[in-house]
């Protein structure tokens, strides 16, 4: 079964002195585009975490966050004075450069900026690192489950849209012979309206056969039918089929466009427009497939 690239996962682990929260979310992307926000004390784990995410998620625009919060009586917040001072200087410079008044409550604003407050009460040990690993694993697993659920919904949608296109393709058949007779009749009527005009009936039939062969859509119908079946087969191949499904949908579009250009019949062209509408919905959602 296919999987979606859209997903979200969250995990929380608590230690006697600290609560660690891990969040991860993903959207569609042609390859893995990973962005991480990890507290300074866990930076030694960053490469390990990135490797685990890349191995398990493969594709998608992935945002990964780790939050650490001290808890218990030992937790004591401290102000990082050098960081606070640096922010204050930047705020003053920005105020002058942009001609914007300094905020009335600038101190509380500065205290909310990243890394100003430090509430770490203990050094990082192996127990805490293992707790972080556990939270990372749980969050990724939750995202994977989300992707599977979304993939099932996408698969149902694709099967419905493919069935609709296949049904519309069958609706074309009754109009094929009808349009040939209409085209032939229009040409004969046009010739008969020309005064004192005579033509070779045998040569006319030969030219008509040649002209009608150019309008024949059997080959396009056959190829489109094969693409529809191949799309459904690929859906059953498991995850990692997003790019292939995209290629197949492009080929389906080519055949549908050719059907439209060759149809030369109002009702057939309406059917082709409905096919295109179904296909556009497929193309839009294929972008979300792993």
TrEMBL record:
Region forming the signal peptide: none
Can you provide one Gene Ontology molecular function annotated for this UniProt record? RNA endonuclease activity
Coiled-coil features, chain-numbered ranges: none
Pfam families in the record: YicC-like_C, YicC-like_N
Has UniProt tagged this entry with the keyword Zinc? no
Q: Which domain of life is it from?
A: Bacteria
Give the Endoribonuclease YicC-like C-terminal domain ranges. 174-289
Mind listing the UniProt keywords for this protein, alphabetically? Answer: Endonuclease, Hydrolase, Nuclease
Please indicate if the UniProt record lists Isomerase as a keyword.
no
Name all Endoribonuclease YicC-like N-terminal domain ranges: 2-155
* Names of the cofactor(s): a divalent metal cation
Q: What NCBIfam families has UniProt attached to this entry?
A: YicC/YloC family endoribonuclease (TIGR00255)
Family indicated by similarity: Belongs to the YicC/YloC family.
Per its record, how is this protein called by name? TIGR00255 family protein
């Amino acid at each position: 079964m296919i999987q979606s690239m859209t997903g979200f996962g969250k995990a929380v682990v608590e230690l006697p002195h600290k609560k660690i929260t891990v969040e991860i979310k993903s959207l569609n992307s042609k390859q893995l585009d990973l962005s991480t926000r990890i507290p300074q004390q866990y930076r030694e784990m960053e490469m390990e975490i990135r490797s685990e995410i890349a191995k398990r998620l493969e594709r998608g625009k992935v945002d990964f966050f780790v939050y650490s919060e001290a808890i218990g009586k030992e937790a004591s917040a401290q102000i990082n004075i050098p960081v606070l001072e640096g922010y204050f200087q930047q705020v003053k410079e920005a105020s002058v450069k942009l001609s914007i008044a300094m905020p009335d409550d600038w101190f509380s604003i500065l205290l909310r900026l990243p890394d100003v407050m430090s509430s770490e009460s203990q050094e990082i040990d192996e127990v805490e690192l293992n707790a972080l690993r556990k939270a990372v694993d749980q969050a990724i697993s939750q995202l994977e489950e989300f992707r599977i659920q979304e993939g099932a919904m996408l698969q149902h949608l694709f099967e419905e849209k493919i069935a609709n296109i296949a049904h519309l393709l069958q609706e074309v058949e009754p109009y094929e012979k009808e349009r040939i007779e209409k085209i032939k009749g229009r040409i004969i009527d046009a010739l008969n309206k020309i005064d004192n005009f005579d033509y070779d009936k045998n040569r006319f039939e030969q030219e008509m056969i040649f002209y009608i062969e150019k309008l024949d859509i059997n080959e396009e119908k056959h190829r489109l039918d094969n693409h529809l079946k191949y799309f459904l087969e690929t859906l059953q191949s498991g995850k990692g089929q997003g790019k292939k499904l995209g290629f197949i949908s492009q080929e389906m579009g080519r055949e549908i466009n050719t059907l439209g250009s060759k149809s030369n019949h109002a009702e057939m062209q309406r059917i082709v427009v409905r096919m295109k509408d179904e296909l556009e919905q497929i193309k839009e959602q294929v972008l979300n497939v792993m």
